[in-house]
Write the structure tokens for this entry.
Amino acid sequence: MTGFHLGTDKRATLDEAAALVPSGATVALGGGLCARLPMALVRALVRADRNELHVVGSAHSIDVDLLIAAGAVGVCEESYVGFEQDLGLAPAYRRAAETGAVAVRESCCVTVLTQLRAAEMGLSFLPVRGVKGTDMEALHPEYRRVRCPFTGDELVAVPPLAPDVALLHAPIGDAAGNLHLDQPYVLDERFAHASRMVVTTVDRLVPTSEVVAAGVTIPGHTVAAVVEAPFGAHPASCYPGYAYDRPHLAGYIAAAAAGGSQLASYLDRYVHAGEDAYRAEIDVARLTSWSTCDTAWQELFR
């Protein structure tokens, strides 16, 4: 169950936020696919040279793949890592899975959600049906078969999942860590309440009144640190503020697939150079004008 973080001013730098995530930690990654990923924090973890992280989430893309490409991940517990039908498989994840460089413990979204709910409620397990009879059971020796005392049905009991830290990104938040998210929330709400702490970036730090007016999605008592990081989800999207950056994603995928010097060049340019240099490369006008007309959003796919 979540810890309580009751300070009224939790503003931090990216380096200070990354310092709260030690090597070997179980890290929940917010957002999903190519939307609202905590990418500024991911890049900060790479710069901080973290390793042996146990990453958990629903369906993710460049956040997980970049951490794996940089050698930061020991265990990956996700339902999917890839770029969907648009840009295909996640190259670093696939390579690590094939070589055994990362322990892949594939799960499914509902199972992860159920485990988070068990942690929230202080329960030692909750039952699921969906993984019964699949190879996922073999990947998770911690699962057990149980029999329902009411129906006699055999179910799979899954233990609670309480990550050490949840990394989130939100469009707005205040200094106390109250966050507003636009739907879909994916697993961010559950991560916030099941994890021991939340470390978050926001595109804009605003007065509490503005967060309240928009609607508080994540309460501040779950949040240990908040960093103002404009375009902190890039190259993922944070709608309605900005769209995902398909050309950047395509460039990353090519570099990650090639590995070697090409991957090293990407990391040097977009990670190790720092966040200010990274933001300077973003085509802000293109990504923020996606909603102005049909032509603008169609251009995102060129």
